[in-house]
Amino acid sequence: MKTVQILSDFSSYPNGKDERVFKTGEEPELSNEHADLLIAKGLAREAKGDGAKPSIPKTEPAAAEPEQKDDTK
Question: Range of 22's domain?
């Protein structure tokens, strides 16, 4: 199960047969499959909270390479 944050109002069928209306800002707990589908469609993102991973991982800046001295004099 994943908790997601809804980014816009829409209707969906989490279990394939019963319609559910989602409202912007809601943070429902959904099956992994349905949560991944909504995230892929841009309708939701993983909720920030205990144990939730960010949708976009933070990257470390590349380390600068040390300058090489030209010893050909």
Answer: 2-46
